[in-house]
Input
Amino acid sequence: MVNILEAVKGAILDYGTASMETDLILKDWIATSPLQVPASHGEGTKWGKFLMIGSVHKELANDIAILKSVEGDFEKFVEALRPRSQEEWTCTKWLEISRHMAEAGKLLNQAENQRLLGLALSTTFGKPLRYCIQYELAPAASYWNYYADQLDSCSPTQMRNNIAVVVVGSTNPVLAVSRAIAPLVAKGMSIILVAENDQAAMPCLLIGELLNKAGLKCSVYAGSHERLKEITAVDHIDVIICGSYDQAVILRNGSSNLKLDLDGKKAVVVMESGDCDAAVDAALTALKTSSYMSPGFYLVVQDSMLEEVDWRLKERFNASRTGELLDKTIDFTVDSRFPCPSKVTEYLQTTKLDILTVGNARVVFDAQPSMPLTQWEKLGQTLLVFSYRSSAELLTLLGNFSGLSEISLWCEKQSVALHIVNQIQVPRIWVNGFASYEPGFDHLLPIKESKREKFTFVEGGKANTSLYPILDGLRSAQRSWASQGNRNVLITKFLKQLLVQESFSTKTDLLLELITASSRDVGKIAVSSAKRGVVFELTDPVGLIAVIASDGDRLDLLVRIITLALLKGNALMLCNVQNTVAQTLVKIAKDVGLPNVILTCTLNDDNNRALLNHHGVRMLVLCGDVSLPSQPGDHVKKILEVDTKCNWTVDHFVVHKWVWMATGEGLAN
Output
């Protein structure tokens, strides 16, 4: 039997040698070992296929450097990790952490560690070993090497929280963990990895072991649905969810700061005159590197290109190699332990669609957006091929897909590509490229940012339904406003009119500051040059924002919120206790030509319930002592509580996305 315990401790796992004898032993061991942890260790949790039962498991848990707590109160576990006193963040401290991070990158690049981690990923998720190393482990190592050299992380003040909890539910756990925590470790934070499911457990243990071996602080904690809620209830920690939005939204009612590294569905879009060969290769690469637990993949093709794409896809997909899981030459496994979700299989059997199957993977041609499986959370190794006729139809199609996290857009004309990019809210977009992850960018999406520990909810009562059609109209006006190119010009006129109003005579400094910010606003920013192109940080509006203000005297706050929100293309409903000021602002906005993107309503529980229930409201901004009359629906993406010092709120009124352009020529225009 292969000694996995010795492998975890750093010994070389003899996988990948010329002899196939070791491979056969591994295959037999994986096939015959039940490997379930006893109930006394993690309430019967299955910790992947590598943890031995009995004494071997206990030896593993005791001897490796990971502090793996599976019992007891999580808050006590966190408190045990907190430093007794706030350590001063010095250049010497940064250099020490930088050296440890460089060592972590070195360990991730070592062949023996890549074999071990690759083997854990391959046998857990059903992905070929070579793809695990090429598309997950090698990019993960680049993150540690990059942030080890970032001098801008050396700051005299530490971050507000010094512990980050990473809940790992991604199908690419090593890459997701590295992407999420490398910039935090560079700032001196301690990390706790929480495996959300059995599949993520072993990769968490191994990556935690490597980080501890490199001298970094990383602990591993056994997760469960109940424990995750306990975790988000702990004060003064950052919680990062590596997974889907649905996994994160159920945990947002806690008091911790919650962020999401979105791992969702991927789409390859082929526009007219796009590179068919490269696009088909990108779609097949996404399928080959997927797992039986993947959210799914879409190939969306212009009608005029459909025939060329179809025959290329069929030819190359049928030529893919299949075999046993540990065969180093396969593209797809035929292992029955990693099947496509039965729900998907049963549905496809009831259709008359053209379906090709190779091993455990399949391609579904002529798919329709009305099919229910486009809304399902997991499709496994399934690629759906759609077609569209116009740009408007493409935008509608992409908008109907739930859970999109990445898009690969293939288009010859960059102006056409940017037109599409600016109208879709997807966090990661590649133009004429695919999944070329670049470190140095914040991939985390804020799910809940609040300084308030607990929100007060007053249940009972009904919503003011007469407000719904007004909100519908406001949402329609917001879409038009977001696409308007001269927003900063109109907002500058609005602010200049406020300068001559008697009620704003004491706010001259504030208004001049906002006029300066408005005149300098840019819609897109070229962040840096990538290996073969330019990386853009683009900003999208959040959408419809409800401002609930119980204190009508905070004029500075109200003007700042309105200005920054409108500047980014949002629309606002002001629910204010004193409507006089709000009405004045709305009147002046109309006088200078602003469209109907600011409306007001009276502050009461019925109106607040309507705001919380309406599907168009994407963000709540709470000013003053506000008690919400009901729990916000899932359509509310952010809840932000602000005070008079709210310069930083500009970042919360936009949705950031990263766009990788394969060539940088002409992109600034």
